[in-house]
Amino acid sequence: PPRVVVLISGSGSNLQALIDAQSHDRLGGEIVAVIANEPDAYGLKRARDAGIDAVALPHREYESREAYDGALIKVIERHEPDVIVLAGFMRILTPRFVQRFLGRMLNIHPSLLPAYQGLNTHARALADQATRHGCSVHFVTEELDGGPVVLQAELKVSADDNVETLKQKVQDREHLIFPIAVQWFLQGRLQYTGEGATMDGHRLPPDGMR
Ligand code: GAR
Q1: Does residue 107 have a pLDDT over 90?
Q2: Of the candidates 11, 14, 46, which has an alpha carbon nearest to the alpha carbon of residue 176?
Q3: For residue 127, what is the enclosing H or E element?
Q4: ipTM of the predicted structure?
Q5: How far is the CA of 10 from the centre of ligand 1 (A)?
Q6: Using one digit for the tens of pLDDT, what is the confidence trace for 119-160?
Q7: Which intervals carry biased composition (Basic and acidic residues) (predicted)?
Q8: Is 109 in the pocket of ligand 1 (CB under 6 A)?
Q9: What are φ and ψ of residue 5, in 5° steps?
Q10: For a Cys-Cys bond, which of 7, 13, 93, 123 suits 97, CB 3.0-4.6 Å?
Q11: Is the pTM of this model over 0.90?
């Protein structure tokens, strides 16, 4: 089966959704390694519990971003992945890293891109009194949170939502759409073209599918 490497920094609830999809034959591949830059990331335990190779690669042990990303490339390539999945990997990637895996790296982001790139997306959506919010799966390019969007899930923000309720609602949707996008990619249906993304050969709109 196609090989999947997942990068995480924290809880790994999206990783768990990918593991669960795999166990129901809905991932289209096998998660062969989970790598975390935070050695205490709870997602590493989720990986071990699922019998997946769990690797802690603490960024604090490297003197520069370039050195860290070089080490990360080595660990990833040892596992010969078909796709690299960023599931809450909270690091800015060097151009060299992005170029190495361009076109086979997917990220989940907690907003309806291109709105709210970067951090604190839920607080910013609330501050703006946004009526709609959600999450996006996109191909990773050198532009932070700026690569072509593949799939989005949208939800209504209600008057009594706060950061916590909104985060929970968004993450519930993340867990639904991320495994689907990974499966489409591994089935060869999704492609990065250099300018955008295609699904079954058709150019996707800038905000992907919904
Ligand atoms: C997810 O909500 C994901 O969208 C977000 O981190 C969370 C990780 O949760 N990613 C980013 O903000 C990327 N900049 P998880 O560890 O439980 O999957």
Answers
A1: yes
A2: 14
A3: helix 121-127
A4: 0.99
A5: 8
A6: 999 999 999 999 999 999 999 999 999 999 999 999 999 999
A7: 200-210
A8: yes
A9: -115, 130
A10: 93
A11: yes
